[in-house]
Structures
1.
Amino acid sequence: MAPLEEHLAPGRDIATWAREALEEPAERERLELLRNRISRELDRRLQRAERRLAGLEQQARAAEGALELAKRADLLKASAHEISRGAREAFVTDWYGDPEQKLRIELDPRLGPHENAEQLYKKSRRLLEARAVAAAERARGERERDALRAALAGLVLLEDPGSVLERAEELRRDGWLPAPAGPPRRRSVEPTESLPYRRFSSFDGREIRVGRNARANDRLTFGLSKGNDLWLHAANASGSHVVIPLGRAEEVPMETLHDAACLALHFSSEKALGGEVHVAHVKQLRRLRGGAPGQVSMQSPRTLHLRADAERLKRLLRGARDDAESSDERGEPGAPFRQRE
């Protein structure tokens, strides 16, 4: 057998060769470990992005009937003089299609023909608005999906742990990976319970504040929040005020807005996963004159329709910054939102 020195490159000794031979398997194992860890997180986010896109596709299909509803409303108004209040259906001439064919339209017998037509117009407008929102979110979702797919594909091409770690840092800066966990928090000298709100972290790392009870809602909204901060409250229910702190002219990320809406519904008398949530800037709110603490009024509130998402709620509650959910304590519910006439 040839001596070992014959297999060595010039200038390398046996000790160096042996150390590198032993380190090489460990280096490969570390590389695979890093790749797998990052790939799992990217794949989890990719699956969520694809589920969100599938949901938006369903919304788009549901909105396809908007123009048909508007057409029926037009025909109903044109034939209103032939329809009596209390009718449950009407047969009208279809001037958009075949005039020889009568089109059947179901009616609410409690309403007159013009009121029934207005109801159809409202449904049509809501569907068109939902379709526009879904289209914008779908474009953003497709960009997110494509970026995640590219990140996963590029990860396979990296051949050493250092390159993988550099890429992971780039992905964190771009928001595709969560920031590394920091050291354990020390308990503040001032107990967290002295704050009138619970603190949560959104998907984008933004702080979301949730009032603990009616008086705390009042203090959070009118004492600790700035005019440009975004305020949310479950529609037609009592519950917590939810505030997203914002800078001047700063826009809230869509995921943060949906996270805050999810918390507003959870910390309400409905305790729902999905539903309607009022959204406004704090500067648009006023204390309700003569009302209980936490009651507010606002002109022309915007309403966000949130789809049920149990995984979103679980993530938010797990990431509570002050163990707000350790005992599922909600305190006294806030007062219901009221719209000024």
2.
Amino acid sequence: MTILHLITRLIFGGAQHNTVMTCAAQAAAGHEVHLAIGPTYGPEGSLVAEAEQAGAVMHHIPSLVREASPLMDWRCYRALRRLIREVEPDVVHTHSSKAGIVGRAAAWKEGGKRGRRAVVHTVHGLGFNDRQRPIVRRLYIGLERYAAKRCHRLIAITPQMIDAFEQHRIAPRDRFTVVPSGVQLDRFGPSPAGTREQVRERYAIPQDAFVVGLLGRLDALKGQRDLIDIYPRLAERLQKKHPSRPVHLLFIGDGFDRANVEHAIAEAGLAGRATITGLVPYDQIARVLSTVDVSVLPSYQEGQSRTLVESLLCGVPVVGYAAGGIPSIIREGVTGRLVPVGDKPALVDAVVGVLTEPDQARWMTEAGAAHVRKRFDVATMAESIRGVYDLACADAAKRLHGR
């Protein structure tokens, strides 16, 4: 089978890791795999080298940009149509909002509509959210409705993605298959003795501090500023029980919102009590997580959240807002603490509870690790995706033969 994947940017991110691992599994299974990407730049890191090593044939599309640009998007549409004619894939599999919309339109025009090839799209996250201006939100929903009619099958990484698409009348539930995003389970686990102390020394974090970590790119929707906002109340509550232990915020990652996060830290007077690591290589994430006492993700828009999966595998308790697919990982009081989106007092309560009730935190984390090991294996993901391809190819064949 010849498979062409399309994704906008190959930065360090959940959708991107998912795509690269899917390419690697498919190439290892003997398929001819192609991956088309747009320009990848900036502080969020790049997975281009990993993709090249995965066995996929790489195609760079300069006009496949994240920003909305009618001229560039038209050029991208034409470029993708040319690429599809050149590669002649059996399956075109699109990822992310921009590549998903333009890519499905191109693939449908180049044989998808007539059933000459199957078109599949994975919903890794929502391109629309309640924080957008109403006109922008309506535009994104309209574009998703347009694109949903130009593919044979849809994959959602969590049931919550299906709920959102059905709620906004983008696509019916029966066109979806849930395929959780896989994680390389063997890359995450407890670190060797002494790692925690070494990491704290490297980032000038007191050895006895409560470290509240947030692993993710620096982005306005990821919730770094919510942690900064709750710091005074959090520190006050914790120091009533542990007067000698300071509280330290650790933001693991980088991104285009870094200047705003740094400004918020300075404005809150948290110099020396909050650290931004910058970009951490993927093979070092488990090491850095070893120094964290609780991994918090107060995100306002989320697909599945690989970072919570990775934290649990490393033995770190988790707290998160109930946004997007986060509830598929955190079951309140069972695998972690789940908080209503934007409820900062509840976020303080949850973090304090995890840090001051270590026995409960330990068994929730163990339950969470067992849960993610069962559900988020890469081999299971790849096998499930192949099943979706079979369904999509069958749907395409019906079109081809006029049934």
3.
Amino acid sequence: MLAAAQYIIPPLVGALIGYSTNWIAIKMLFRPHRPIFVFNYQLPFTPGLIPKEQKRLAKAIGATIAENLINPETLKATLLSAETKGKLDNAINDFFGKLCRTDETLQAMILQYVEEEELDDTRKTVEKALAAMIHERLACSELGDTIAELSIEHVKKSLGTGMTTVISIIPGLLDSLKRFIATNVNLFLKSSSQEVVENLTDQQIEQLLQTPVSEIVSLHSDQLSAVRRQLLLLYDKLVEHQLPQILRGLDIASVVEKRINDMSIVEAEGIVMSIVSREFQAICLLGAILGAMIGIINIFF
């Protein structure tokens, strides 16, 4: 019995020691979470390695991710790949297909993305801007002269040659009438056209908002292919030229560093263990195997 124990106990003890030391070493990566003091003396290896070096590790991990994982070259290769662009093209086609089939009005679709108050404010701003622009053009256009000229020509055609000749006998009658029309029309355009234009603009915008989206799309169906191509070109240009600037603005390294620093040690430990728990278990088992082997060697040497 004792002879058998001499061959069994050393490997068992070696395996236990190997497993235990590796298990303790892994636990000491995170634990203890805080420094431990005895008589104002901080015990060695407290806190654990990762809590102690959290800020340095956060900075290093952030820099590594920004430089080697989420960098312009890597993202460009992914975003401009044939697979990604194919998915984008399919998504655009699906979107246009839904627009062609939907019964929603333009207003209902817009309200899915913005608040009603925001839509009303935007609508009023657009109406006033359009009315002001059209009013300014009309006020400076001397449109009254053109209307007066066309009106006199219309009168002449309506009355016929004979009557026109009779009217022409009265000196300056047609010219006076033309000036009267031109003056009053130009005065109206300068003083009152903005209100009229605002009312017309409001009516047209309201009509457009209440139009089904499918009807709007069907009126421009021949242009959908061109729009799709332009969207894909815009996507290419955005990724090619703006991506580096976007990433600099995001500052991925700082975002990752801050997130890690904001984590509690318990949260960080849970994340790491969920990823590499099997690998840590394998390390412990490897320690047990090495310990057992050393125990077996000690039996014979």
4.
Amino acid sequence: MKKKIAFGIGRCAACDSDKWKFLFKSTEMRHGIAGEWDVCGCRSCGLMRIFPFPEKLLKYYPEDYTAYYAYKTKDLPNYKKLALKRHYSYSHLKVESSFKDLLKSELYFAYTKLSGNRIIPFRNGLLFDVGAGVGEFLESQGKLGWDVGGIDFSEHACRIAKKHGIDVQFGDYLKANLKKKAAVVNATFILEHLPNPNAFFIKTHAVLEKKSLLVFDVPNAKALDLALFKNNCYALDSPRHLFVYSPRSLLLMLERNGFVVKKILYPANPSHFIKSVNLWLKSKGFKFSFSPTNKIFYFVTIPLSLLHKSSEITVYAEKN
């Protein structure tokens, strides 16, 4: 069926085109909040966005939003630490290992390469997490030797992080003053929430040391579950997700804002795909669902990763 032309949206944040197509209607699926938004796609670069943006976005982030949970961290097993030490520049880690650990570490390394699993290579300096939530990621990275810090706009999340001894400041990243330049800026599923992604890249370019790294994850506009399930796609998450990014749209924005893309991964983690299936089943009145950790789905998501059709994209970009 021919897609309808969408008018009045403005210019694309990635390629500056003003040509959009209407794709489908979307609603808020996770917390029962009323509203309806058009999902439109840029005809030039494939960037997707909702229209219009919500006027009061914060009301769509209740305190039971999934990023704001209490947690307990666990130390990595020896074989994972050994893989980090051998392949990801974590030479400072002290690991007592057996032949079994060595074998498991190489299998784990092979798995990370096959499945597009995101691991940040170690470098000296600050790892700063944008949208740090309750600080779980920062605590795990601190245990691996990083100097860590972060920011989040939820006071509730920052209070939980403080209880864990993690320095997550409350505030707006775009207006924040960092105490020192960062060696790595991490943003795990943050960019899709921001109304001005170019402002994020400009800010990040300013806070990074030269030749330092931006690592971020976003939903994939080319994902199979988005094409199949549309509004029931978990990663769409209207209206909290204002954008869904195509690889081309990301390349254009990063290049424009002074970054060189070093690597793009298409993670095979099945969690988002399974949650999309569950939302679709619920919408059809089915009473059963799949566990988000069901490993059977790797038979689906690993091929999708290889075809660049996975639910998410991970980008490693270096500051020029």
